[in-house]
Amino acid sequence: MKPPAFEYVRPSSLDEAVRLLADPAKESKVLAGGQSLIPLLNFRLAYPRRLVDIKGIAELAYIRRDGDRLRIGATTRTRDIEESDAVAAALPLLTEACHWVGHVQIRNRGTIGGSLAHADPSAELPAVCVLLDAELKVRGSAGTRTASANGFFHGFLSTDLAPDEILEEVAFTIPAAGTRWGFREFAHRRGDFALAGAACTLRLNRDGVVEQAVALVFGATPSPRRSAAAAAMLHGNRVTNEAIREAAQMTRRELASEPAGDSEQAYRQELCEVMLVRALTDAVNEGASRGVAA
Amino acid sequence: MSGLESLAVPVRCTVNGVEQTATVEPRLLLSDFLRHQLGLTGTHVGCEHGVCGACTVMIDGKAVRSCLMLAVEANGTAIVTVEGLAADGQPLTPLQKAFHEEHGLQCGFCTSGILMSLTALIEHQPSPTEDDIVTTLDGHLCRCTGYRNIVRAAQAAVKAEQHRSRPAVATAGR
Ligand SMILES: Cc1cc2nc3c(=O)[nH]c(=O)nc-3n(C[C@H](O)[C@H](O)[C@H](O)COP(=O)(O)OP(=O)(O)OC[C@H]3O[C@@H](n4cnc5c(N)ncnc54)[C@H](O)[C@@H]3O)c2cc1C
Ligand code: FES
Ligand code: FES
């Protein structure tokens, strides 16, 4: 099908874009890479009166190392993040996650801001942001605010953003040197949205005891979900195969308390457990050699 | 459709090395601009939601879906479609020739999109591994070939290009 009629504007500054979005006379929508929005328009699942294309705003596309922060502008393409040496050096977990976002032809257009604002439950970049508790900079009519990635995602295609707000920047705190990580997902065909996935960061002391653990699963719940039980279980212990299996089982039990649904949901929950076992195992086995360098 | 004139926006881009200017409705997809307005029907349209890859073209050297772009978003860019790989009467590119020789196509519906993605890959990375080729092809659905011959064609083209080292795109004006 073809998109419904709309007006198209391409502001060159963030202020102008926010003003356009706040105009009550026109129902406007931000257009970034278009890799999620244009399919919705083509299928007439969205009827915005006006598209505000933010790709003309030069100050929104950048990757910048700033002390212990890695700052990425909202309109930075997934492919540019995937290929960035600065990202690979500071946050190889993010580089790995980008490999899994759709196909290269999609990553050539799609943006990090668009992925977060769209908030697909299976999307990789929101999962990484929640795992690392990224700080999100948001610009609206009332000015600039920052939001924590934990709490930003409200469920299926739903976020903390108001209609007149633009996600401006994603800032990651670079994990301490020696932090191990894992990222795994499962899809029927490479490049498809994941059925389920898992990611983790682990810090071990010299004796191999966990000092800090964050475990997360995505795809089986409306938003990416950290597992408090897994983190608590791993903390203060050695990461044996037994401990990993137990942490993943606890995570699955947490998921089982979510509104379940159909058999596919149960399958996704089971996949989350399996993916978390693999992600944690990767973190232990390979994590040191590909540690998050500071 | 009255009132649409007021929404019309200008587009200016180069397509296969030729400067194009037009006034279009904002909702016009790039795929339809290429096919209906410019008559470049080598760019195919399968799904219109980014999944099949048939509509893939190169924009500023990168493979992208023309069904997921508005024509107006192509403002200021350089586009290459399958027609731009080898001009009429000119020799085929090594990749096109390899598709012929390795039987990399049957019905041809998916072929133009695949040629554009593989051309972009080889320009970006002159010695792609089999894995690089397969990863590029994961963005393309082919109902006919089973992909083996496509992978073989891409590998043969890489070898041929390394002998010749002639630019993969003949008429892009770069
Ligand atoms: C075939 C296919 C496969 C895909 N597979 C995957 C996959 O495996 N994993 C995955 O994560 N994604 C996948 N995607 C989606 C892709 O990654 C999208 O690019 C991404 O989700 C949206 O980014 P975008 O820049 O294209 O946003 P757009 O499509 O332009 O916008 C998406 C939404 O976000 C809003 N928006 C965009 N930017 C901002 C901003 N800065 N501030 C406020 N609102 C904003 C828009 O208004 C819109 O509602 C796939 C897409 C396709 C077509
Ligand atoms: S028509 Fe564009 S990807 Fe299928
Ligand atoms: S050759 Fe027929 S779809 Fe690929």
Question: Could you explain how this protein is built, in words?
Answer:
The complex is a heterodimer of chains A (294) and B (174). Chain A is an alpha+beta fold. Helix content of chain A is 34%, strand content 24%. Chain A has helices at 14-22, 37-42, 78-82, 85-90, 92-99, 104-107, 112-118, 124-131, 228-234, 241-256, 263-285, and strands at residues 7-9, 28-31, 50-53, 63-66, 69-73, 135-140, 143-148, 153-155, 158-159, 166-173, 180-186, 196-204, 210-218, 225-226. Chain A has a 5-stranded antiparallel beta sheet. In chain A, strands 11-12-13-14 form a 4-stranded antiparallel beta sheet, with helices on both faces. In chain A, strands 1-3-2 form a 3-stranded parallel beta sheet, with helices on one face. Chain A is globular, with a radius of gyration of 19 Å. The relative contact order of chain A is 0.12. The mean pLDDT of chain A is 94. Chain B is an alpha+beta fold and 174 residues long. Chain B has one domain: Ubiquitin-like (UB roll) (Roll), CATH 3.10.20.30. Chain B has helices at residues 30-37, 94-101, 111-124, 130-137, 148-164; strands at 9-15, 18-24, 56-59, 62-65, 78-80. The model of chain B has no long low-confidence stretch (mean pLDDT 92). At the A-B interface, helix 2 and helix 6 of A face strand 4 of B. One FE2/S2 (inorganic) cluster binds next to loops of chain B.
